[in-house]
Amino acid sequence: MRTWFLYPALAVTLCMTAATPALARPAHAATPGSSGEAHASRIVWTQVLNKDFSSQRIVSARPDGSGLRALTHPGPKQLDINAVISPDGSQVAFERDLASGLTVIGLVGATGGGEHIVPLPCASPCAGVNFPSWTPDGRRIVFTRVIGPFDGPGGAARSAVLYTARPDGTGMRRLSPPGIDGVYEDFHARFAASGKYLIFGRHRNQPSAVAVFRMRPDGSHVRRLTPWRLHADLPDLSLAAHGPTKDLVVFETFAHGPPKGPQTNIATVPATCHPLAACIRDIRYVTHNVPGPHTTFNPAWSPDGKQIAFTNAIFSHGKPPIADIWTMRSNGHARQPVSLSPRFEFRPDWGPAPCEPR
Q1: What CATH code is carried by the domain that includes residue 146?
Q2: Which residue, of 1, 24, 202, 267, has the fewest CB within 10 Å?
């Protein structure tokens, strides 16, 4: 299994009244209540808690940086990552990497509280479940189930494919089509608002490469949206009902295409493109980093598809890495910081805010 690091359940929406204490608000943040948009949605992300990256938690804030709060409380040497807000904004699914090497999926209330691990069936040789997401109605979670041994090309897992289950862990079933186990690894799925299709990342084990794919929920009509040479990773799908970002996928790419250089950049491709040659022509870069210490990655759409949250990082030789969460318009303009913390912060997700007291 490749190592991804830097690189009726919810039928009724209820106001959540138990909120955790807010953390210190960044100095740049607007005064709470000054932006209607800020109160209509929230961004969640991973915050690294120490210099050796051995502990990290999920935090949440409004898009202007106000109302910052910790959501999860991992134990020693536990890493919380890949948080995703439920369609109604009431819960956050996340991956927890345990010190034993096992990965599990947890749920926590969007304002904190009720944190628990989902009891998904995963007996040995299962190595864990990761990269959670949601179906559009919020009734099921989507995830990758990893089965050992890791004896494939480059240490690839015997199987790492998409599954879905109810939030209580029952009703688990496979999403990925049959016959790909050990050849491909599917991860980071995102459903269209209609539920008619989903996009996801697919890792090719030999030779190693990553691309964005699309398929129907029954595993049929699988098609590739990006060339393998781009190493397009961690895709997210706009839920805009209309406008220029409808059905638009945003992803991070590890160069091997314009703009030149070994830096990561953020790009888009329509989920509706076909064939692959047309998709390649429709790829548009949102950021234009050149070789150097500055880089951007981990893109995630706002609920209305008008903005993108992302990680803005600096990796300088001989210095600790710096990374914060920023937002920008879908064309890359009007960049604004969400977090300006001394801690390394990455992997944002942007979703609706829960109904919470002011």
Answers
A1: 2.120.10.30
A2: 24
